[in-house]
Amino acid sequence: MRAVDIIQKKRDGLELTSQEIQWLIEGYTAGTVPDYQMSAFAMAVYFKGMTTREISDLTMTMVGTGQQFDLSEIAGVKVDKHSTGGVGDKVTLVLVPLVASFGVPVAKMSGRGLGHTGGTIDKLESIKGFQVERSQEEFIQQVQDIELSVIGQSDQLVRADKLLYALRDVTATVDTIPLIASSVMSKKIAAGADSILLDVTVGEGAFMKNLADARRLAQTMVDLGKAVGRKTTAVITDMSQPLGTSIGNRLEILEALAILQGQGREDITVFICELAQIMLSLADVEKTAEEVRQHLTDGSALEKFEAMIAAQGGDLEDLYRPSSAAYVLEVTADQDGYITELPAMEFGLFAMRLGAGRAVKTDSLDYETGLVFEKKVGDRVRAGQVLAKIYANQKISQELVTDFKKNVKISNEAVKVSEIIEIIA
Asked: Has this prediction a pTM greater than 0.90?
């Protein structure tokens, strides 16, 4: 076989055989297919797409290019969760200990943030001593001991995806459904869980900008999971505004702690409890919304979270430490009305300017900086009321405040907000 023939075939909109896909991906991983040819292939897929069978073959070939975790030693139905990315998304920090507090084992690998999106691992690393790198044996033992572990993705897991994603990132081929679906599901399948919850974000701050594309991606990933015997459900969720009240690593840890103590904002608390119900049902555990919420108010979920932090070397005193940002500035409203827009992308990029995110993978993070919103879309606000607080380690200029305010839209008409738009099972 020749890579150029496979590229041409896909360029012309023809369906590739299983053998052609396997030869190309394995050759790329081995270094015999060069970057420039794989870039051409990715662009051909971007424009011509792939059939369901092609995506399935691509996914499973990628799974075979690296380590695969065997979680069979862990009793019960092992559940995992993945989000396609967003702004202020601290859901994993609350959801996984909440689910684990019902005795359901959660063995989760998470990633880092890039651009306007935040990463769960970065947030956990804002806790002094927390270790995201664990061996497979340590990972499994911890889940056996406390039903919960969240670690960084192994460099040996799905090696083809690691190489291909870096290439897609610099060739404008990130946002194509076949490559997103195979990237996500190859890692979830290799990670070994029995059941998978997929949070597919849609809107201004997500990769999927419209509901039709989000539905196609969600259905594709659900079909991939089911095809290899993994019970899989996807939820399509709104990412038109930041999720919750905080953007920034330390600040999101503090918000997660508030939610875990039953003191979080009502909308994100309800949202996480709904996701927990779905995730529990994937492990054949049926609980009412009230039963799930009880584990936030009675400390059961918080106890699991603290146990995970301690088991992975985290300092429990540092866990509760407030942000040490040198400057904190309150931004106030200029008029009365209802907040109708807080564009997630713009505020994600704003937080990145403060040091809370990375423009490129090699950038270092300032864990202490970010934003905390006092008001969200749908809330009533009066002139002079605090909209948000900016946390920075550089002096906050008036220009920065002006940039913040220009993205806050206030009108006389209230708007309704719903985090979960649709469920695909």
From this structure: yes
